[in-house]
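Exercise 7. Predict the structure of Dual-specificity RNA methyltransferase RlmN from Rhizophora mucronata.
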Amino acid sequence: MVLKLKISMFRFMRCFYGILLIDLETHRSLQILFRLVDGMVIETVVIPCDRGRTTVCVSSQVGCAMNCQFCYTGRMGLKRHLTTAEIVEQVVLAQRLFTSEVGSITNVVFMGMGEPLQNIDNVIKAAEIMVDEQGLHLSPRKVTVSTSGLVPQLIHFLNESNCALAVSLNATTDEVHDIFPCLDLLENTHMVWKSLSPVYFVG
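Solution. The predicted structure, encoded as tokens:
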């Protein structure tokens, strides 16, 4: 089957953006490349699911400082944090553009460009807007923030938000997981069990 690509340019709120639309019958995903007002570019991905769930994967930073070896974004280094508006606009735009093709947006994951907990204040504010009745009105259980394991920010997030948290360990030893030692993460699991947020540990 021939891959169908459609590229368009639009003006949306504070962002210029280009859309790379991939045919749903072939790749089952849609990518949006945002060009921000300062010329920086970020990526958002819309992921439909046959079970009636449609997930938007949003970015929280331009680039990333974590330098995870498996992640291309880490090679860019950190350029800047996204504002609360720039994070929320990614979901709003996905809803406006793709609802007719893939159905309503049901889930949001902060698993795009950047380490969300390095931009924790704007991420928490964005998540609040996403779950607020006057905002996007998603369930807190349907909004998941992913982190590579920044312990102080992780604790702050659990104290401030009832959205879900995914901790990506990517290692079983401190030599490999050098962002924060695995023991520090384990010693703070009591915060996890006391929190109201669902927490997932991903290997």
